[in-house]
Amino acid sequence: xxxxxxxxxxxxxxxxxxxxxxxxxxxxxxxxxxxxxxxxxxxxxxxxxxxxxxxxxxxxxxxxxxxxxxxxxxxxxxxxxxxxxxxxxxxxxxxxxxxxxxxxxxxxxxxxxxxxxxxxxxxxxxxxxxxxxxxxxxxxxxxxxxxxxxxxxxxxxxxxxxxxxxxxxxxxxxxxxxxxxxxxxxxxxxxxxxxxxxxxxxxxxxxxxxxxxxxxxxxxxxxxxxxxxxxxxxxxxxxxxxxxxxxxxxxxxxxxxxxxxxxxxxxxxxxxxxxxxxxxxxxxxxxxxxxxxxxxxxxxxxxxxxxxxxxxxxxxxxxxxxxxxxxxxxxxxxxxxxxxxxxxxxxxxxxxxxxxxxxxxxxxxxxxxxxxxxxxxxxxxx
Length: 382
Fold this sequence. Notes:
Blueprint: E1 25-34, E2 37-47, E3 52-57, H1 63-71, E4 78-83, E5 86-87, E6 98-101, H2 113-123, H3 128-141, H4 157-169, E7 175-179, H5 187-204, E8 207-212, H6 215-221, E9 224-229, E10 232-237, H7 239-244, H8 249-254, E11 259-268, E12 272-277, E13 282-287, E14 297-302, E15 308-310, E16 320-330, E17 334-341, E18 346-352, E19 367-371, E20 377-380
Parallel strand pairs: 3-8, 3-9, 6-7, 7-8
Antiparallel strand pairs: 1-2, 1-4, 4-5, 9-10, 11-12, 11-14, 12-13, 14-20, 15-19, 16-17, 16-19, 17-18
């Protein structure tokens, strides 16, 4: 047997898994052309109330165009945009129950923090007492109480980002769109702000859709994410599902690090297939989620952190290979081992640095064995 049985605790379904849940946002067959260039290609997906949903992809994949269509700043060539059961496809941006935080923040530099946030509320006709109350509440939410009279030019990048967020939240939109909102922040501040963003979203319950090219950011903050490429959605799912069970080679290679090997299916079992992998010089059991006919050419994907490394040959006949350590990258919390196999292919393995580097069991040019569990390798047919 490639793996043993386990007791799986039952859990409540997520809102997107519940067949009785109604989508809050629906994108139906949306396409967009700029001249003869097809930017978006019949995109359809749903977002549920209270989600923090990310659109993730490389520059030029169409994610910002899709966000602008949701905001009403751009019109689709075809398809529909539905928010809370209402078709808003032809509504102008100012009529939609939507607000947007831009990458540049788009704050008024000549105004104070109070004036920036109050600007949209005054346009809505709120009286001063109501505006004061709303701004006090929203500044407390974004941890900027006492900043009311500061000019935005006096603020740090992280503070400007929170003012832009406060200004958008103050109008109590049904949907908040965020276009690379943390891109201008340094790494440490960006990581801190990610958690602040999640906490704010959970406290107010407004649905967020965020555009990012940062995989780590999408993985950290999203309830679900859509991986985009060339105007299409390649996969939608919770971060752990997209990472652990990619649907295609593109998604597997785009999200995180991966070892990828070509092989042929030689045996089919209920939950596993046996794959002959020439570069690994072995036959490997791997998990699968559908029928994979014998003789099918597939890709075997194995995350480096799932790969174990030893100088002792494994006792079992499957799911291991042999090679020589050619490079070691020390990254503080982990080390990365680049192991050259008999065919010349390089396989990587991550290990946690529980020992000092000088105390490690492996060094350059050591012959080592790499092995992994069947459930930690995935068969990809596309």
